[in-house]
From TrEMBL:
This is Fe2OG dioxygenase domain-containing protein. InterPro entries: IPNS-like_FE2OG_OXY, IPNS-like_sf, Iron_ascorbate_oxido_reductase, Oxoglu/Fe-dep_dioxygenase_dom. It comes from the Eukaryota. Pfam families: 2OG-FeII_Oxy (PF03171). It comes from Ilex paraguariensis (yerba mate). Residues 18-113 form the Fe2OG dioxygenase domain. PROSITE patterns: FE2OG_OXY (PS51471).
Length: 113
C-alpha cells in the first residue's frame, strides 16, 4: 500500500527480499518505590518499521508538537506501528521517525514484543 501510494510498487519485491526481521521481547521491571523515570530512554528506531504490542501495562510516550510527552495507551490485542529512521530516509522525510520513550507509572512488570 505504501509503495503504491508513492508510485514505486516496482521496487516492492526487491525491498521485501532485502528485509530482515527481528523479534525482540522486552521485559520492563516494575518501578521501585520513588523511582520516577523507570523505563527506556528517548530514541528513534533505526529500523524501517516497528510493530509493537504489549501486555496490559502502559508506558509508551511520544512528544506532542508543543514538546509535552503524551501517552500512547493501547490494549494488549492492538498493535502500534512506529516508522523508523530507514523509513524516514526512504520517504525523503515525508514519514517521520518519531522520538519515543517508555515511562512506567504502574507498579507492574511490562512486557512488549
Ligand atoms: O516498549 C515500548 O513501548 C517501546 C519499545 C521501543 O521503543 C523499542 O523497542 O524500540
Ligand atoms: Fe523504539
Amino acid at each position: 500500500m505504501v509503495f503504491e501510494s508513492y508510485g514505486v510498487e516496482r521496487n516492492y519485491d526487491s525491498h521485501l527480499r532485502s528485509t530482515t526481521y527481528l523479534l525482540r521481547p522486552v521485559r520492563y521491571r516494575a518501578p521501585e518505590k520513588n523511582e520516577s523515570n523507570a523505563g527506556g530512554s528517548i530514541h528513534t528506531d533505526k529500523s524501517f518499521v516497528t510493530i509493537l504490542r504489549q501486555n496490559q501495562v502502559q508506558g509508551l510516550q511520544i512528544p506532542a508538537r508543543n514538546g509535552d510527552w503524551i501517552s500512547v495507551d493501547f490494549p494488549p490485542e492492538a498493535f502500534v506501528i512506529i516508522a523508523g529512521d530507514a523509513y524516514m530516509a526512504w520517504s525523503n522525510g515525508r514519514i517521520l521517525s518519531p522520538n519515543h520513550q517508555v515511562i512506567l507509572h504502574q507498579n507492574k512488570t511490562r512486557y512488549t514484543q
